[in-house]
Amino acid sequence: MNEMWTSVIDFMWIAFFFVLATMIKSRIGFFRSFIVPTAIIAGFLGLLVGPEVLNLVKFDLERLGNMVYHLMAIGFIALSLKERSKKKDAEYFNSGVFIVSNYAIQGVVGFSITLFLTYTFMPNLFAPLGLLLPLGYGQGPGQAYSIGIQWEELGLTGGGNLGLTIAAFGFLWATIVGVIIVNYLIRTGKINMLEAEKNGERTMITEEISPDEIPLSDAHDKLTFQIAIIGVIYLISYFTIYNVAGYLESLGTFGQTFAQLLWGFHFLVGSLYAIVFRIILNKLKAKGLALHNTPNNYLLQRIAGSSFDFMITASIAAISFFALKSYWIPIILITTIGGFVTIYHSYFVSKLIYRNHQIENFLGFYGMGTGTISTGMALLKAVDPKFKTNVSENLVMGSAVAVLFGIPLMVILNIPVFGIESHQPIMFVYTLLLLIAYLGFLYAVLYFLTRKQRGLAKQKISR
Fold first, then answer.
1. Domain assignments of the chain as residue spans, ordered by start
2. Most exposed residue of 256, 413, 428, 435, measured as fewest CB within 10 angstroms of its CB?
3. What CA–CA distances, in Å, run from 126 to 95, 140, 228, 411, 414?
């Protein structure tokens, strides 16, 4: 096949799965009464007929991964460019601590399991294997694969593929279990589905569009201008990451680890630039320097929605399974216990730190904590299809705060490597104790901030 067609063919297959999923959702009674995002159905159709299962469609999983990577950034840049009412930064800060607390508790659970197995039933097990849980569940296949590959040199056979396997189980927890949770919450009345018809089908609220919202004739189409702005911001983001990552890589192994992390958070860099652009634009408008064409909320929302739909479909279709072989016992234990712990942890922390939209935040952060931000957006979109809540912003801006709070965690995760290289297994114990201590610190931060914010809220009410 001509090389110039390969990526386009992959995109067309994703489009085909989405159209087919739409038809299935509208025709099959089960899907009409059971709330399942169309993008998730499309993704599993792609996974079923793709190279990992039936092998009927031989699309390239790496290219699908690249599609997910870039669509994520495009969607979040579009959301960040939207005009919005002012929100309290405290929710963003709390969200960032929340994200890292999910990583920490997953690290405690995963590492505890493999340490127990290593010193009881499986003495030849690679003890740090359990630390791939927060990487595969919390940060996605990219980070889990990268760290797994590095650990192969330390004795973890097939470490990269094991990282992908754990991430694949995370996607299953995020999508299959996540959809079950969504429907349970709807049927028990904990989510009020104002946009659902009697048969469970979703309908979109009609938006008021002004006559000049989408002009039919102009020097250029207004949609073109929105895409152009997104493209420019993404270009600036790329050059920023390229130069900063290049400097970090020159600092050695530790710098290389953070350079990889920076590339993984490309969507966050783009979102920050988009927010800065919006702030500057608003200041210019306040001074009477309004531009002829400006970012348009309606069109930006459509771009973001389309990007996330295709991103979710591609991310599920790109799941790669690895033959578990001798690791199937620890992998099943780690991923299953880790999945249940993430559900309960995400639910109770959401109830603790958010005053509004607690269930929506729970679904978003659970999906993010078991898959990637794309699966978090998928579950959120099932109950908030037009992103009317601020949960999507909590996910994005919370990730910025998570980078800072995640630095100590990345340091802790590297301690077992030093223990293996220096033949000091006591380092495993130190690692587990540090993970528990850091988790306690994060809980203390959340408790203190939440108590302070609620105290301030009560003072305002009393006035």
1. 3-189+296-458, 222-286
2. 256
3. 33, 21, 49, 19, 14
The pTM of this model reads 0.74
Strongest mean pLDDT among 213-217, 252-256, 338-342, 406-410:
338-342
Instruction: List, for residues 182-202, the tens digit of each pLDDT value.
Output: 988 888 877 765 543 333 334
Gap between the Cα atoms of 105 and 435, Å rounded: 8
Q: Are 41 and 24 in contact (CB under 8 A)?
A: yes
Which residues, 6+ apart, have CB-to-CB distance to 251 below 8 Å?
none
Long-range contacts of 49-57 (CB under 8 A, 24+ apart): 50/317, 52/319, 52/320, 52/321, 57/13
Query: How far apart are alpha carbons 185 and 301 in whole angstroms?
Result: 26
Residue 116 above 60 pLDDT?
yes
> How many Å apart are CA 63 and CA 7, to the nearest integer?
7
> At 202, is the secondary structure helix, strand, or coil?
strand
At residue 41, the 3 state secondary structure works out as helix
3-state SS of the chain: helix, strand, coil percent to 5?
A: 75, 0, 25
Distance between CA atoms of residues 20 and 38, nearest Å: 9
Assess contact for 278 and 80: CB atoms under 8 A.
Answer: yes
